[in-house]
């Protein structure tokens, strides 16, 4: 480059990266100053890779997927392998026996012949006897179905394969059927063995009711299970045990003889069963001398084995929190109240007016339970908020009840309505605190009319079919099998039952108004009253009058 006077001018070269913003202004200024600009585009390998990257990633994904499916059970994602937990017969540490199972003696007796077959199959084969291929354990949750299956394997000293019904079904079609085949192949290699399928209804529901029209993944899994159960000889030493609390929705093909031959009901334990369960769960717990397991069993009607185990654990936690060296009866009482009524919420702030209203509400429940002839005895009443309730009245039957008379149900409805009746009688108002009571009372009255044939006007007839729709649930979509006129009569009968019991309870509370006031005053003073303390208040009133 030449300067103005003809002399050469020194030129410098610089390579810069222009900023994205205001680059046009900067370029124009440089050109005005006589700067020569040469544009150099930066090359990047991403410009070449980016168009084909999605296709590369898809290929890598499927290659990795197929490689993992071909690997053994130790693979991180082994789709075709059953996820059954296995307990070998030689594993002494994890083995469960009938000594660990209590409260379900009838079910244990039913399973003893299975144990005998697994121990000595020749005794049965000699006479041509065939042991059941499959056994279904039916019962409410927490009654010990899984524990019972483990105990059968432990007593027979055979391998035990445990899997949940939901573990068979995955996103990809055919995975469930592959897992079923793998499970039975493993069981045959380790025969004699027990295959336990928990929550059998997850895979064994009626076929043909799903969206896939009989070809969805769950139904293919069920088909594979049926084929496998047909494919092994009962004398091979493999027994399938299934557990469910919904036997009504199982496919009939699953329940036919030759598959699941036998159904064993595992019910909630009675008072003797609960005492035996408590003895099992307190074996390793230091108990105080005042602990009476029989009394605890009598005070826990309707508890399952899991509920009792939870109560024992809660009692041990309460005793440990207090720094005790052993668990006393008061700890068990507190744990039972926590399991039944929920934890205390003493931090909940309530006004004196609201607290008084709750005291009279609970006093109404309590007094009605004392005065009604068929009502369950009062165990405890409290105005301390527990769980979702602001106050609780706890009744415990003296014995386990299996059938209920009309008088007992009417007394139950009356007790439920008594809290609201006490509010009307003393406070001259009603509150939302009775919402749950009204719901339960209405439900009982409806069952009296539509299910139990206890309506004099309609007679011993049931109304409404119980049918479960696979997508709508148990109660939604319940078909009606009666006319509009009958529906009106049903509604009238329900209202009449509720109205009659409401009048009955209001009259009863009005006649014993001093006792109602006394119970409410004691609740405001002590917050919690036992059944014995409440009965003394009533006895004192009767002596004075």
TrEMBL record:
Keyword Disulfide bond: no
GO cellular component, one term: plasma membrane
Subcellular location(s) of the protein: Cell membrane; Membrane
Membrane topology, record value: Multi-pass membrane protein
Cofactor or coenzyme needed: Zn(2+)
Entry binding sites for Zn(2+): 361, 365, 437
Positions annotated to bind ATP: 139-146
Family indicated by similarity: Belongs to the AAA ATPase family. In the C-terminal section; belongs to the peptidase M41 family.
Role of this protein: Acts as a processive, ATP-dependent zinc metallopeptidase for both cytoplasmic and membrane proteins. Plays a role in the quality control of integral membrane proteins.
Subunit structure: Homohexamer.
Protein name: ATP-dependent zinc metalloprotease FtsH
Source organism per UniProt: candidate division WOR-3 bacterium 4484_18
Taxonomic path: Bacteria, Bacteria division WOR-3
